[in-house]
Amino acid sequence: MKTILSFTSVLTAAISLELAAAAAEPELTRYHVKVTDAVGQPVAGALVELYRGPDTLTSAEWHQRLAGRNTTDTNGAALFAVTNQAVAIFVAGKPGLSLAWSLCWLGMPQLDPGDQPVVLALTPPTTVSGVVQDAAGKPLADAQVWVNLAFRPTTSRIGAGGWPFLNADAGRRYLAARTSVDGKFCIEKLPADAALELGASKPGLALDQPEPARSGLNLSSLNLRAGQSDIVLTLKPAGSIEGVVVQATTGAPLAGARVTSGDSIFGAGAQPLPPTGPDGRFRLADLSPGQHRLRAVVGTNSCPDWVCEPVTVELEVGATNRDVKITASRGGVVEITVHRKDGDLPVAKASIVLAQQTNGESATTSDQGLARLRVVPGSYHLMVSKSGLVNHQVQLTVEDDQTNQVAVTLDPAPKITGTVLDPDGKPAPGIAVSYIPFNGQERKSDAQGRFTLLSDPNRFGGQQQPERFVVARDPARNLAAALALDEDATNAALRLEAGLTLGGRVADPKGKPITNAVARLRFLAKRGGSSLGEPVPTDAQGRFEFTGLPRSHHYQVNVAAPGFGQDNHDLPAADAATNRVDLETFQLPLANLLLAGVVVDADDNPVAGASINTYGKNQPQLSGRTDSEGHFSFNRVCPGPITLSANDRSANNPRGGEAGWVSAEGGDTNITIHLGSIVESRATAQRPVSLRGKPLPGCAAAGLTTDDAPASRVSLRGKPLPGLAAAGLTTRDAPANQPVLALLIDAEQRPCRLILRLLGEQAPALKQKGVAVVVLQSSDLAEEAFTAWKQQAASPFPVARLKQEPEKARAAWGASALPWFILTDKSHRVIAEGFALDDLDAKLGELK
């Protein structure tokens, strides 16, 4: 289990598992919904519907019901009053326009709706279409096809507790179709910018696509895009799973358990199964081939009498697995009491998340600040949060038949307050104010121009402090201001002045405008930066504009479009007198090539359900999963180099420890990815023969000697860490009497950059554990390029270059591949090396 979960994975654990009712009397929250068109103008007469689950949810009961319906007024506004502590989806539509949606965790304590509406943008509609076929390639009539998951990148900013996701339950209701006699389908009313995943079924048949083990909500790289017309979905004979839920102590059948397979919130969206009867029996039908992770939930209370260990079942095409046994035990209980540090008062309605990598529970504290959860034994990450207070995180080990009592004290969250003034010195109301680089919020100034922002309570320590700004923007009047903050600043006064307009044009390889591209803006600062404002779609001429930007600052614009690649343009700090800059045309390459292959394990066996991700300059970022035979394919990649990563996050390997990387070219259809290996060369038509457990073939025939291929790498285990001074690091970077985690990378390799980014997400937890982290660049990267990359990467850790020739440097550090981890104890003696990031938690546990 990871030391600290990312925000998205914590959110997934929270909204996909049990949410407890906070009090006997439900508390109402008013949610303002604003419906606009593609350019932000209000849409009157749009129908807005609110679907939500019950106040107390379990992973076995994720079927939404209609909870409200309203029509927007002349200002495009609709108001809903709903009880807290439920997950819901707002969906808006109007004839002639696309649907728009927002998934909300109502009452989420980290996000106070305030005066920020849930914005739903209706745009010109488009479709997705294709054909459904059987395993022999024969078209299937009367098959059901639906949007299993959808994401809208142009509404990706979090606001008022909303995320731009549509799950399968809503997809079946709003975005579904049946195939015709020739197997063809067409789903309408999609926004042009939607990324999506499709589901399909027919009685007795199921999609050959194992249920994903989702670890977060980072789903912007879904493989399919609105507007595609060449989709092929293959259905194979469905399987079923039959079994029984029994009590661990007596073996007797357990009634009242609901059994599900996979992720309920992002799953197939079917009605929940009835609970088990006196015989404890259950049956799951019409399942896809591959691995299924079964979870049983007993009752609907946040602290039930029984908890069940998940069970993994391997299901072959068309088969029935019988006699599956799920064991229910009393588990362990965790009692959390939450108080404020100032005044020692209990904290009501604090969010409690007790999570593992693929499992967990959540609840909300009572008026007395108490929450009680029952979970299966194991190691957990506890996160306690409440708006206006600093989050608390700690690791727990829960034992069977034991009660863990945890007392948590939350500090008041640091705030930045201030005022925004117009150029004439008068208060400026309604101005968007953001905090850089921790821009998870945007607030509007009040009638007196005042604002309050929560600053980040877990800022990175050490020498790599990001530069902080408060940014105020009035795009309508093209006014803006930015103020750099001192380290301990808590107040900011900004005076608006003439802003910068940043424009651009997006075209295809022939120079024709791309009218459905999306441009995103980043405000860059030293060792940091963040997105600023909403993504902007291109118009009929392929143009976009960002207005109301502070002048004399550094920006980066990313542009992407369905069916094309992506591109980034940087704008260095412009002259203060400049009020408009037009970037060079973004010419996006066509993404019209196929990319296909197979994922195998160390023994060359195909791996079903492995997650696949693509990376590459100008390439679209795509993700998918292997089918039951380990195959994968993407039909929308660009020409040129592309890197693929595979990770076995199946139920048999929930930690995702087995990963593999390979470099390929757009259009390759014979790629083989071996888990546990990094291959830098292009894939070949013939699958390589595994040498696992075999001697290395002779090197003499290639003219090599033992000097070229030593018998083994030098291990540093038990030895002192090599000196850091030669790399320009000091004792401030790696203090005495403090464990050190060193990461060797090649900044030109995407796998290394990805690992560095993932490690950065754990910076606060590593700091809390007293572990010093240093990053060492080991390649022929020029000094200028290294400096530029270092600034752009904005790592929270000290980053330095090893001055030796790369091969010698890696040999001195015992690194046989990159990225390479080395962990020392407090005396800086190496205790572990060459381990995976997912094993970091276990390695830290070895520290005394």
**What do we call the CATH topology of the domain at 10-198?**
Immunoglobulin-like
The oligomeric state of the chains shown is single chain
Distance between the termini: 19 Å
Give the biggest sheet. Answer: 9 strands, mixed
CATH architecture field of the domain at 10-198: Sandwich
Verbal overview:
- Among the domains are: 10-198, Carboxypeptidase-like, regulatory domain (Immunoglobulin-like); 332-410, Immunoglobulin-like, CATH 2.60.40.10; 593-682, Sandwich (Immunoglobulin-like); 725-844, Glutaredoxin, CATH 3.40.30.
- By secondary structure, it is mainly beta.
- The relative contact order is 0.08.
- Strands 8, 9, 11, 12, 13, 14, 15, 16 and 17 form a nine-stranded mixed sheet that branches.
- The N terminus is likely disordered.
- The chain is globular, with a radius of gyration of 27 Å.
- 7% of the residues lie in helices and 42% in strands.
